[in-house]
Specification:
Elements (H helix, E strand, L loop, with lengths): L1 H26 L18 E5 L2 E4 L4 E4 L14 H11 L10 H13 L5 E5 L2 H16 L3 E5 L29 H4 L2 E4 L4 H10 L4 E6 L15 H11 L3 E5 L11 H6 L5 E4 L10 E5 L1 H4 L18 H43 L5 E5 L2 E5 L8 H4 L4 H13 L2 E2 L8 E2 L6 H22 L1
Parallel strand pairs: 3-13, 5-6, 5-7, 7-8, 8-9
Antiparallel strand pairs: 1-2, 2-3, 4-10, 9-10, 11-12, 12-14
Helix pairs in contact: 2-10, 3-10, 6-7, 10-13, 12-13
Length: 441
Amino acid sequence: MAQKRQTSVVAAASSRSEQLYNRAKKVLPGGVDSPVRYFEPYPFFAASARGSKLVTADHRTLTDYCMGYGAMLLGHGYPSVLDAARSQLDKGTLYCVPTELEIKLAELVSKAVPCADMVRLVNTGSEATMNAIRLARAFTKKKKVIKFDGGYHGAHDYVLVKAGSGAASLPASEGVLEEASAQTIVSPYNDAAELERTIERNRDDAACVIMEPVLANIGLVLPDKNYLSDVRKITQQNDTVLIFDEVVTGFRLALGGAGEFFGIRPDLATFAKALGNGFPVGAIAGSKEIMQQLAPAGRVYQASTFAGNPVSVSAAIAALSTLFEAKDSIYPQVARTCDSIVEGIREELEDIGGINCTINSIGSMYQVFFTADRVRDEASAKKADPAKFRKLFDELLRRNVFIPPSQFETCFVSYAHDEDDVDRTVDAYSEAFKKIKEQQK
């Protein structure tokens, strides 16, 4: 009887989101403003969020592991970040002239990130990667871009080739110019020898290698031992600019991002997400020699009305200041929380038995793949069973645990997640795995 009552409550609670989705479809293509937000039969709609919790329009409280696809490292509504934004609102929201705030944020980024001699503030990760590629081309006087299978660097033409994230399930995006994609070469991740051969074949025209140091948009895929140092060595030997796309890993794996975490210094790095802890702000950072190519110092044109807007910049200063002040407690805590979840899931899988699963994790990030094989690149990630993952997503959501709905995304833990969240989450995974096992029979 209790189970029937619970089911009816969930069914009734979904009606508000269904109504909103039906309205949305009339004015928003597909009913959403980003394809990763859609899942069948319709997505739930959010009403508010705080800490590790997200409240839906149907008044359900979910433990959130999407966390703005990695943006909310400190958790939803972190007080110092909100206070900084509120304080700035009273002073103005947009000036389109320089502010001291921009200098302060750039100084913080330069202090945190090993490769950041200079910084250009932008609005989004896509904007950052697009202009980092333009910088590399201008600096090297070469055209071709090398990226990796399953790497996602935003939705612009030069990188929307064999991309991850929402594009991972599509063969290609219509509307991308063939002339643009022809300048992009795709190499397998975790294969340094193939990258070296690729660069050698294109030695005279390879402007840059752009990579997520940890793939986070084809599920979560970690670099093999010495792989990143091999990539750094190969690019240096061939005068090819190395761009770390740290839109996901930046300020999340460590205060200095993957560059600090792995001890690798790329030529350029791009940031967004955790930089603003929920506010729209991004950055391009790199060596002075390359960064000074940007106008007005140089001839690489990049401009934006909202770049360096004082509200987002104030929030980002507060977020980075918090990370600087408490890095010795924040990063170990989120890593321990993530490890507890992953260890709990593994123990439940072992107890239940009969389900082939691989779990990848690093720092505050993890993902479950329904495959018995090790997942170390796009090809092995795509061997995972998407139907079982969708069943996992549905069962977790029924138990008020929200993970990204796609196998080809990553789960994120925040500073706000606590031991109670861990216990409820592991229990939810356990019940979900039992349902999946029943379905296998």
